[in-house]
Amino acid sequence: xxxxxxxxxxxxxxxxxxxxxxxxxxxxxxxxxxxxxxxxxxxxxxxxxxxxxxxxxxxxxxxxxxxxxxxxxxxxxxxxxxxxxxxxxxxxxxxxxxxxxxxxxxxxxxxxxxxxxxxxxxxxxxxxxxxxxxxxxxxxxxxxxxxxxxxxxxxxxxxxxxxxxxxxxxxxxxxxxxxxxxxxxxxxxxxxxxxxxxxxxxxxxxxxxxxxxxxxxxxxxxxxxxxxxxxxxxxxxxxxxxxxxxxxxxxxxxxxxxx
Length: 259
What we know:
Blueprint: E1 11-20, E2 23-33, E3 38-42, H1 49-56, E4 64-69, E5 72-73, H2 78-83, E6 85-88, H3 100-110, H4 116-126, H5 142-153, E7 160-164, H6 172-187, E8 191-195, H7 199-205, E9 208-213, E10 216-221, H8 223-227, H9 244-253
Parallel strand pairs: 3-8, 3-9, 6-7, 7-8
Antiparallel strand pairs: 1-2, 1-4, 4-5, 9-10
Helix pairs in contact: 3-4
C-alpha cells in the first residue's frame, strides 16, 4: 500500500506563507491533523483562518511552503486533493429554487456517482430532513439549510471535510444539532478541520486545537496542553479549569507570548 493510500496524517502543513499585496496573511505556519480527528483552527478576524482553508482546498496557492491533504500536494496534485475533500463555507451554498432532494441529487450527479437518488435519500434521512425533502429550500429555516449544506458536502464520502465557521447565525438548538453531526463524522473516521469564533464549540468538539494570531500559529495542542500555558490560578478553596475562551484571550492579548 502506498503512502497516498494510507497517509501518515490527513493534513500536513509545512511552513506555508501567503501575502496579499503588503499584508502577510500567513507567516510560515505548520501543523498536522491526524486521520479521523476534529481539528479546530482558532483566531480573530484577519488572523488567516479562511486563507488557510482556501489553500488546503486548492482555492489559493501558497507563496511558499507545502500542504498535503489525504496524501496529495495542494500545489502539484490539486485535482486529487479536490476529489478527496469537501468544503462547507460560512454561508450555505444551496439552491433555494430546488427542493432539498434535488440539491443532493444534483451534487451526486456533479460527482459522477451512480444512483444519485438513493444517495440523496440516505443523506436526507441521516440529517433529519425527510419531512422537508420535497419542499423548496427557500422555505427552510437557517438550521435546516445548514444541515442540507453539510449533507451536500458528504456526497461521495470525502475523507476530509473543511468547515469554515459552520454554525455562524444558527440558533442554540441548531448549533447543538451541528455539533452532533460533527461528532458523528469523526466517529465514522472522517477528518474535520473546523474554524470557529465560538470557543466553547472548539472546546466541546476538537481533539486538537491551534490558535492563529497575525498569521502565525502561537499555540498548538490539546485543550489540556493549552490549559497548561496559563499561569496557575491562585485559589484557596476551589480550583477551576480555565475555559478555552480564557486561554485564547490570554495568548492573543499577549501577542503570542507564553509568559
